[in-house]
Amino acid sequence: MNNRIDVNSQTTSIGIFKKLKESREAGLLLIIIIMSILIHLASGNFLTLKTFSDMVKNYSTTFTLALGMLSVLIIGGIDISIAATMAFSGMASSLLMRDGVYSSTFIMFFVSTLVGFVCGLLIGLVISYGGVIPIIATLGFSNIYRGATYIISDSQWVSAYQFDPEFKAFAQSSNLSFGLINNLFFISIICYIIMFIILKWTKFGRKIYAVGSNPEAAAVSGIRIRRVKFIVYGIAGLFAGLTGAMYTSLYASAQSDMGLGMEMDAIASCVIGGVSLSGGSGSVLGVFLGALTMSIISKSLPMIGVSQFWQTAIKGLIILVAIIINVLVQRTVKKSMLKERGV
Predict the structure, then answer these.
(1) From its phi and psi, is residue 84 left (phi > 0), alpha (psi between -120 and 50) or beta?
(2) Which of 117, 112, 87 is nearest to 233 (CA)?
(3) Which of 23, 194, 256, 314 has its CA 20 to 30 A from that of 5?
(4) Chain-centre distance of CA 178, in angstroms?
(5) Count of alpha carbons within 13 Å of 84, Cβ hemisphere only?
(6) φ/ψ (deg, to 5) at 217
(7) CATH code of domain 46-302
(8) What are phi and psi of 275, to 5 degrees?
(9) Can you list the residues of the chain whose pLDDT is less than 50?
């Protein structure tokens, strides 16, 4: 009888937690709608198809980079080197195209993604098998990859005329979706679908959540925690490398300082989307809405006349508020679950 009560209580707790998550995502969607309407009233031309199309194209890099940060945060880690990884991957693959090693857009994307994946695995190796704290390891690798970007490029740009015309045109066209949406945003959508399937319906996805929720229990159940962390950081690097190719195609150039500060946009997208900074919680849909929120903010601030200096300050404030809300929500969830269990 007691076991049945415990099971019912646990089921009720899980139900409350899911409803809270769903209501948060629904609430975020409502905020996005209201915010878009207010911005349109202030600017007069925000809610147009062209504005939306330009926005998702220009900030598709934020969408993809945030997806890599999601997996890292779920396991209770963090990666502040993803922007530097993105820059190194984009620059390395751009230099190879400049030097005539290849001209194919597909190979360009493949090489950049592969470089990012290897960079992520190196970080994962140091964290998972070397025992280095994630924030220290990724801070160090951020400087290493950023410095390496300057070294391999000799602090020079790869300019538009040095890229293959097909590669430059790729970011401006929509042939992948038969003219429906921009190529870069289409790639982001495909990545979100794949990540959704992995996290929701695969054994490895369940392991990721288990490691972030309770590492001790995960270890007792036979999950190889170090291996999961190693692979997850590789995944984060993979998305960073893909973003590097997207970035260089979008701006038709590669600079050593590209992507500076983008790690903060990725973290903010995740936190706004409800990803727990303590690990074990977060959804692909939430991150998508969080990245959409950040994109709307970044797109709208110049439209309503906010200076560039205030834009940075406002973004920082948004991140701070999002973190506070996230902590309060997680605390409420834990209290509700403990109350349901009679603790």
Answers:
(1) alpha
(2) 117
(3) 23
(4) 26
(5) 19
(6) -65, -35
(7) 1.10.3470
(8) -75, 130
(9) 1-14, 16-17, 20
